[in-house]
C-alpha cells in the first residue's frame, strides 16, 4: 500500500465557518490552518480542543482571521504546542491582523480570550519558508517534505504540498488563477496527478460574468458618483489581506484622474502594515517586481492614501467627501462599525462591500436582498473612570496592595526564622534598661548604648543587639564565579514594551497610537447602548474576494486530476454540486466529510524503495527539468548483498524506446515565445495557433477532443513541408525535454 493518509475536518465543512483540518500522514498529524471567525465563537473550537495536544505541525495558508485567528487561543488554552510553518508575509501580516483584532475588541469589551502576549508567543517561533522551498521534517516526521506555493489570494498566501515516499498531498483553499495588480495567479495547475487534493468548493456555484477591466470601471465609477454629489464612501476591509489590492486600484486611479478627494486607510496597525508590505515586493506580481528593478518604483509608496491609526484623526480631517477603508470587514468591531453608524442615515453616502460578510455578522445582514431599512446596533466604548467610581477603584487597589505587602512581609519573616534554624532561647526577650546609661562591652569592639530593638529578636548567644547577617557563599570554578543565567534574562514584558516603543526595530515596530493604547493602564470601564440605525445610505457589493469562480475551479481540478479528492469549506449546496461534477467527469474517489468524520484517502498504489546500483547510474545521462533532473532508465530488479531491492543494468539487449517529450506547454506562453523570435502569430478558431502564413498548431486531448481533458495531450502541427514548418517544429521541440 501507499502512504497512509487520513483527513478529519475540525471546522469549515458544509458551511462558511473558519478553516481547520487535521491530516494524518503515516501517523504524523498536520493541522491545516487554525481559523476563527469575527464573532470569536469558542464552540467552533471544541473539535480542535480534543486533538490539539496530538498535533505535530501547523501549516498556515493565509494571513486573515479565517485561517489563523484561533492560533493564540489554541496555544494558550487548548494545549497546542506544535511548530508552525508559514511564509514570511503570512507570519508578519497575520501578526498585525491579530493585533488589530485584539485592539478593536479591547476598546469595546472586556475581551479576555487572549492577550497581546499570547499573540506574540504564538507567532514568535513561526518557521518561515519561501515559495517552492522544500523543508524536510525530522524526528517523527522523518521522510516528509513540505513546501508552500503561490495561491494568488492574499500576499504570501500558500498552497501546501506535503510529500512522503514520492506521493503528494496538496492542500489548496482560497486560490485565484487570475493575475491581479499586486499578485500573480496560483500555480495549482503545475501539479499533476497528486495522490490527494484537499480543496474548497466555496465558489463552486458562482460564475464571474465581468472581466477585470469592466469590474474595476464599475467599482471606480460607483465611488466617483457618490463623491461628486458630496457623499462619503466607506469600504469595510480586512487588516492586511485583500485591502492591498483595493489600495492599489484607488492609488492608480487617483494618479490618473488627479482627484482631490482624500483617501484614508484606518486600522490600529495601518502604518505598520504598509511598512511591511513595502518590503515584500518579491512576493508580489511580476509587474511590481519588474517596475522596482528597473525604476526603483515601489507600488506601495502611497501618495494619495493617508494612513490613520485612530478615529480622532479622521474626525479632525478637513470636511468634505472622502473615501475611507477601515477594518473590520464584518462590521462586528473596529473603526468601520463606528463610521457606518455615523454615515448610514445620509442618502449621499455609500457603503461598498468587496467581499461576502461572515455568517451572522452585521455586514452579512446589510448584504441581504432587499437590504434592511433599519438595523439594531449595540455600540460600546471604553471610558476612563471618574468621580466616585475612580475613588472606589483606587481604594480597592490600595487595599489589595496592603494585603499583598503584608503577605510578602510574613513570608520574609518565615524565611528569616528558617534561615537561623531552631533556637531554644530565641523567644526570651532581651531586657534593656532605658533608665540608666550603661555600656555593653565585649571583645568585639566599642560599647552600644540605648539600642531600640524592633522587628527582630536577637539570639541569646549574641553579646549585643545586631542586624541579621547572611553569608552569601559564592560558588567558583576554573573560570570564575558561577552565575545563574536567569538573573540576567530580560523579562518578557520589558522586551515587549521596548519593542513597541523602539521605532527602529522593524520586527517589533507598532504604530505609536497602538503602542500607547497597549501601555495605557488608566482605570476604565466599558459602557454600551443600543441604537436603531436608519439605513438611508447606498449599499453596494462587488466581488473583490480574489477567489477562482466555479468554472475555473472545475477546470483546475480537471487539469490537476488527483487520484483522490477531498472537498471542504462551502455551503452544502455548493459542496454537493462540485462533488457530483467531479465524480462524473474527473475523479472516481471524491469525499466530502462532516465535522470530525475521518476519511481514509490512502493511495491504492504500491510504493517500493529501491537502491540504484552504481553500475547502472554510471551509464545514465540526466537532463535538467526545472528544479529536478530526469533520465530514461532501462533496468531489471534484483537484490543487493544486504537483501535490499536494487535496480541493476539489463542482462540482455534492450530495444530502443520511442522518444518521449517531457513538459507541459501552454499555447499562450508559446505564442509569446514565437513573437519574441519574430514569427507572426495569432489565435485562430477552436484554440488553434496560426504561425506565419502556412503553419497551424493545435493542442488535442487523449480522446481526440480539442481543448484537452485531463491526461496526456498531443500537439499537432498542420501545414505544408516548408521552411516555416521545420522552423516552428524546432521551436516547439525546444520547449520540451527529449528522452
UniProtKB/TrEMBL annotation:
Residues 17-226 form the Metallo-beta-lactamase domain. GO terms for biological process: mRNA processing. GO terms for cellular component: nucleus. Residues 243-366 form the Beta-Casp domain. Its main location: nucleus. Coiled coil: none annotated. One of its GO terms (molecular function) is RNA binding. The keyword Heme does not apply. Keywords: mRNA processing, Nucleus, RNA-binding. Belongs to the metallo-beta-lactamase superfamily. RNA-metabolizing metallo-beta-lactamase-like family. CPSF2/YSH1 subfamily. This is Cleavage and polyadenylation specificity factor subunit 2. It comes from Cardamine amara subsp. amara.
Amino acid at each position: 500500500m501507499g502512504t497512509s493518509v487520513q483527513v478529519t475536518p475540525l471546522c469549515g465543512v458544509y458551511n462558511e465557518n473558519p478553516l481547520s483540518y487535521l491530516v494524518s500522514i503515516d501517523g504524523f498529524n498536520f493541522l491545516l490552518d487554525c481559523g476563527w471567525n469575527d464573532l470569536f465563537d469558542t464552540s467552533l473550537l471544541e473539535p480542535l480542543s480534543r486533538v490539539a495536544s496530538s498535533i505535530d505541525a501547523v501549516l498556515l495558508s493565509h494571513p486573515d482571521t479565517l485561517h489563523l485567528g484561533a492560533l493564540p487561543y489554541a496555544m494558550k488554552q487548548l494545549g497546542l504546542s506544535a511548530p508552525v510553518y508559514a511564509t514570511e508575509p503570512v507570519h508578519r501580516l497575520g501578526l498585525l491582523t491579530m493585533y488589530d483584532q485584539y485592539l478593536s475588541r479591547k476598546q469595546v469589551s472586556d475581551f479576555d480570550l487572549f492577550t497581546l502576549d499570547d499573540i506574540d508567543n504564538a507567532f514568535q517561533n513561526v518557521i518561515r519558508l519561501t515559495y517552492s522551498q522544500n523543508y524536510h521534517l525530522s524526528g517523527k516526521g522523518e521522510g516528509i517534505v513540505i513546501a508552500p506555493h503561490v495561491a494568488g489570494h492574499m500576499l504570501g498566501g500558500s498552497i501546501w504540498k506535503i510529500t512522503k515516499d514520492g506521493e503528494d498531498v496538496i492542500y489548496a483553499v482560497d486560490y485565484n488563477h487570475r493575475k491581479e495588480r499586486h499578485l500573480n495567479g496560483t500555480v495549482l495547475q503545475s501539479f499533476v496527478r497528486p495522490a490527494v487534493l484537499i480543496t474548497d468548493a466555496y465558489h463552486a456555484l458562482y460564475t464571474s460574468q465581468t472581466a477585470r477591466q469592466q469590474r474595476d470601471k464599475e467599482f471606480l465609477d460607483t465611488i466617483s458618483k457618490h463623491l461628486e454629489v458630496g457623499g462619503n464612501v466607506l469600504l469595510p476591509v480586512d487588516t492586511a489581506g485583500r485591502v492591498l489590492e483595493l489600495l492599489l486600484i484607488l492609488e492608480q486611479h487617483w494618479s490618473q484622474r488627479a482627484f482631490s478627494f482624500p483617501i484614508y486607510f484606518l486600522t490600529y496597525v495601518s502604518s505598520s502594515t504598509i511598512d511591511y508590505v513595502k518590503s515584500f515586493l518579491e512576493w508580489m506580481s511580476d509587474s511590481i517586481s519588474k517596475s522596482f528593478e528597473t525604476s526603483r518604483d515601489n507600488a506601495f509608496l502611497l501618495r494619495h492614501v493617508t494612513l490613520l491609526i485612530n478615529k480622532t484623526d479622521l474626525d479632525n480631517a478637513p470636511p468634505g467627501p472622502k473615501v475611507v477603508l477601515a477594518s473590520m470587514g464584518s462590521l462586528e468591531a473596529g473603526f468601520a462599525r463606528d463610521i457606518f453608524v455615523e454615515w448610514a442615515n445620509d442618502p449621499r453616502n455609500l457603503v461598498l462591500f468587496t467581499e461576502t460578510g461572515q455568517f451572522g455578522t452585521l455586514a452579512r445582514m446589510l448584504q441581504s436582498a432587499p437590504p434592511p431599512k433599519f438595523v439594531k446596533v449595540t455600540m460600546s466604548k471604553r471610558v476612563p473612570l471618574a468621580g466616585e467610581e475612580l475613588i472606589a477603584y483606587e481604594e480597592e487597589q490600595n487595599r489589595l496592595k496592603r494585603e499583598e505587602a503584608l503577605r510578602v512581609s510574613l513570608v520574609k519573616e518565615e524565611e528569616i526564622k528558617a534561615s537561623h534554624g531552631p533556637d531554644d532561647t530565641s523567644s526570651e526577650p532581651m531586657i534593656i534598661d532605658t533608665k540608666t546609661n550603661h555600656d555593653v562591652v565585649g571583645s568585639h569592639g566599642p560599647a552600644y548604648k540605648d539600642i531600640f530593638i524592633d522587628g527582630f529578636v536577637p539570639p541569646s548567644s549574641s553579646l549585643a543587639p545586631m542586624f541579621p547577617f547572611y553569608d552569601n557563599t559564592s560558588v567558583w570554578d576554573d573560570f570564575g564565579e558561577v552565575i545563574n543565567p536567569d538573573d540576567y534574562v530580560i523579562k518578557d514584558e520589558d522586551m515587549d514594551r521596548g519593542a513597541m516603543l523602539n521605532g527602529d526595530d522593524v520586527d517589533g515596530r507598532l504604530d505609536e497610537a497602538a503602542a500607547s493604547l497597549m501601555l495605557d493602564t488608566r482605570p476604565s470601564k466599558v459602557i454600551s447602548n443600543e441604537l436603531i440605525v436608519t439605513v438611508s445610505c447606498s449599499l453596494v457589493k462587488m466581488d473583490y474576494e480574489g477567489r477562482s469562480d466555479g468554472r475555473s475551479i472545475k477546470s483546475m481540478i480537471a487539469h490537476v486530476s488527483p487520484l483522490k479528492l477531498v472537498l471542504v469549506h462551502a455551503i452544502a449546496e455548493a459542496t454537493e454540486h462540485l462533488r457530483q461534477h467531479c465524480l462524473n467527469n474527473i475523479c472516481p474517489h471524491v469525499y466530502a466529510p462532516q465535522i470530525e468524520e475521518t476519511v481514509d484517502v490512502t493511495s491504492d498504489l504500491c510504493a517500493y524503495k529501491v537502491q540504484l546500483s552504481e553500475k547502472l547510474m554510471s551509464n545514465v545521462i540526466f537532463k535538467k527539468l526545472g528544479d529536478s533532473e530526469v533520465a530514461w532508465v532501462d533496468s531489471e530488479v534484483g537484490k543487493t548483498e544486504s537483501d535490499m531491492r536494487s535496480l541493476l543494468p539489463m542482462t540482455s539487449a534492450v530495444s530502443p524506446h520511442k522518444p518521449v517529450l517531457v513538459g507541459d506547454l501552454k499555447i499562450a506562453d508559446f505564442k509569446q515565445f514565437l513573437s519574441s523570435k519574430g514569427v507572426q502569430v495569432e489565435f485562430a478558431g477552436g484554440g488553434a495557433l496560426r504561425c506565419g502564413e502556412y503553419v497551424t498548431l493545435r493542442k488535442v486531448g487523449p480522446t481526440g477532443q480539442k481543448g484537452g481533458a485531463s491526461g496526456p495531450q498531443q500537439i499537432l502541427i498542420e501545414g505544408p513541408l516548408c521552411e516555416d514548418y521545420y522552423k516552428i517544429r524546432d521551436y516547439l521541440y525546444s520547449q520540451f525535454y527529449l528522452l
